[in-house]
Write a structure and sequence with these properties.
20 helices; 8 strands; alpha/beta; 5-stranded parallel β-sheet; Rossmann fold; Helicase, Ruva Protein, domain 3; globular; 4 domains; GMP Synthetase, Chain A, domain 3; about 60% helix
């Protein structure tokens, strides 16, 4: 999940296990996701009455769904419409109480696979606007890119209290821009907000690619900040030269600074992460447990944090001694999901619809509109690649289409990919989004 809106939709889906659809629609139908911070989801509620009801009756359920989603505690902040505007004009998201020091350089576990990015981030924080501008940190999801962004912000805030800092996820940048245009809001206010800061941090910039208006605004924002020698830091899941749908002029600016990659942690770093995360939570894991988890959980930091939370819950709720057997029981679901993960066709169709900004039912339907047909073909191709559904079963997901029609659609996409690099990147983006939804 990348944006606050995505997280909020997933939370409402999880709450269907404990609430009726009518109740969810009544109390949350007009509640809008505003921002997703490090450990806080910010929501906008239309009336004070509804906010009070949600706080007293439902907030704990929302936070429980968030914990189920992320495997760590995420708080909920409820804003009224008049408070939302003030929040939007803050130079940076307000830290959660007790959480301001969480994302610091001191708490970042350094290993051979992230040392270069870590050192570069420290240098930028000590000398913002200096040699490494922009700093472009890239790597897979869950490896610590966002941690480094906030560590930079925390260090700069400490050393330069008057520094104007702005952190934003690229999708929130896009959504704010589109919302302002739709409501006819003066764009100068939007531009002043982003071009009047001393430190500009944008997370997951790859989602800007292919969105012409957003690319245009970011290009001019970049130029304005760079000319004033203001520090710019981006994160992405890939290096600039692989962002094929991005305008060349913007890609060139991303590349003119310092690119720094983060790779999945090696064994030694995973052990260090486990020790660090467990000590933060007040437990000490014996060496056999550390070895077992480090050997089996290899992909990213978030999974390691989730494992520590699960082990701690077993210890607290079951009174279980922390040994390898208990650890296996605690992390069995995580390991099984890692080994056997297969997304549903529904999830894939929803992500394709989201990417193309179409209704999922239109993709499943009979429309021969070119854009809808392309999205439908892409959805069929990705379902074929990511699931074990047969051609006939895929056809059932799209109004009972014949298996030969499905095969033709898949073949069409494969041919297009050979001549259209942009399509390959689109499929990669959607595939990453599907994987991130779990």
């Amino acid at each position: 999940m990348r944006s606050a809106a995505d997280v909020w939709e997933k939370v409402k889906s999880l709450m269907e296990n404990t609430m009726t659809a009518v109740s969810i629609d009544t109390w949350f139908g007009d509640v809008e996701a505003v921002a997703l911070e490090d450990t806080r989801l910010v929501l906008c509620v239309p009336t004070d009455f509804k906010r009070n009801i949600i706080r007293s009756r439902f907030q704990s359920g929302v936070e429980q769904a968030l914990k189920e989603l992320f495997s760590f505690d995420v708080d909920v902040a409820l804003l009224l419409p008049e408070e939302r505007e003030a929040y939007a004009h803050q130079s940076a998201p307000s830290p959660v109480a007790g959480d301001a020091d969480r994302y610091t350089f001191e708490r970042f576990v350094v290993g051979s696979t992230n040392k270069f990015a870590f050192t570069a981030a420290q240098k930028v924080a000590e000398e913002p606007g200096g040699a490494y501008n922009p700093l472009f940190i890239y790597g897979q999801s869950g490896l610590g890119k966002t941690h480094l962004l906030h560590a930079i912000a925390n260090r700069v805030r400490h050393n330069h209290p008057g520094c104007r800092i702005l952190y934003i996820q690229s999708e929130d940048f896009v959504n704010e821009l589109v919302g302002n245009l739709r409501r006819g809001i003066d764009m100068q206010e939007f531009r002043d907000k982003y071009r009047g800061v001393d430190l500009f941090l944008m997370d997951d910039v790859q989602f800007i690619a292919g969105k012409d208006l957003s690319e245009e605004e970011l290009f001019h924002t970049f130029n304005a900040l760079y000319e004033q020698k203001k520090q710019i830091v981006f994160t992405s899941d890939r290096p600039p030269h692989e962002m094929l749908r991005l305008e060349q002029r913007l890609r060139t600016r991303f590349e003119q600074g310092l690119p720094a990659d983060i790779q999945p942690p090696d064994y030694e770093t995973r052990v260090a992460l486990l020790k660090n995360k467990s000590l933060e939570r007040g437990i000490s894991l014996p060496e056999p447990v550390l070895s077992y988890v480090a050997e089996n959980i290899t992909s990213n930091v978030r999974q390691i944090e989730g494992v520590v939370n699960k082990i701690m819950a077993f210890q607290e709720l079951m009174g279980a001694q922390v040994d390898v057997e208990t650890t296996i029981r605690a992390v069995r679901d995580i390991l099984r999901a890692k080994e056997n993960f297969l997304p549903s066709a529904e999830t894939i169709i929803q992500e394709v619809a989201r990417f193309y900004e179409l209704d999922a039912n239109a993709i499943r339907g009979q429309s021969q509109n070119k854009e809808i047909s392309t999205a439908r073909n892409v959805a069929m191709y990705i379902i074929r690649e990511m699931t074990q559904l047969s051609l006939a079963e895929i056809g059932q997901q799209f109004g009972g289409r014949h298996h030969s029609t499905v095969l033709n659609s898949i073949n069409r996409v494969e041919k297009m990919m050979k001549t259209q690099p942009d399509l390959m990147e689109i499929i990669r983006d959607i595939t990453n989004a599907v994987n991130s939804a779990y």
